[in-house]
Amino acid sequence: MFVRRFEEVLALPTAMTALLGCQLLGELIVRALHLPIPGPVLGLLLLLAWLLLGTTVTLPVSSSLPEVARGLLNHMSLLFIPAGVGIILHGQTLADQWLPISVSLFGSTALALIATALTFRAVCKIMERSKAKKEGGR
Predict the structure, then answer these.
(1) What per-residue string of b and e applies to 80-104 under the rule 16 or more CB within 10 Å gives b?
(2) Are 9 and 59 in contact (CB under 8 A)?
(3) H-type helices in the chain, by residue range?
(4) Are 12 and 68 in contact (CB under 8 A)?
(5) Is 5 exposed, middle or buried (0-12, 13-18, 19+ CB in 10 A)?
(6) Tens of pLDDT along 107-136?
(7) Residue 42 contacts residue 35 (beta carbons within 8 Å)
(8) Full-prediction pTM beyond 0.90?
(9) Is the dihedral of CA 30, 35, 40, 42 positive or negative?
(10) PANTHER family under this entry (predicted)?
């Protein structure tokens, strides 16, 4: 009973260590290889690969990862505090450069929406063709 309780107590810190370890490993790889992607993104990909391998390799941490992830997501608003401080700190720059900033924000949003819509249409056409081939082959 003591061993089981001890494992339960260590589950969350171990899962958090695994998340931070993947992020650290991603950071180290990006810096060592001078890759043009953020370290945490590579760390997330490493975590994904680790979890996918978890179907064949025993990973005791993966059972408590959802709980840790939920806890982080519940407190995600705290991560926006540095952005708010940056806006306050550079308020004068924002006031001076409001037009180019606004144009770039709205323009990039419009381009992202257009790209998403075109991608969606292309994928729908591909799926329709694939479905038609499967139905035609029957």
Answers:
(1) eeeeeeeeeeeeeeeeeeeeeeeee
(2) no
(3) 2-33, 39-53, 65-74, 81-89, 91-96, 98-136
(4) yes
(5) exposed
(6) 999 999 999 999 999 999 999 998 888 887
(7) yes
(8) no
(9) negative
(10) HOLIN-LIKE PROTEIN CIDA, HOLIN-LIKE PROTEIN CIDA-RELATED
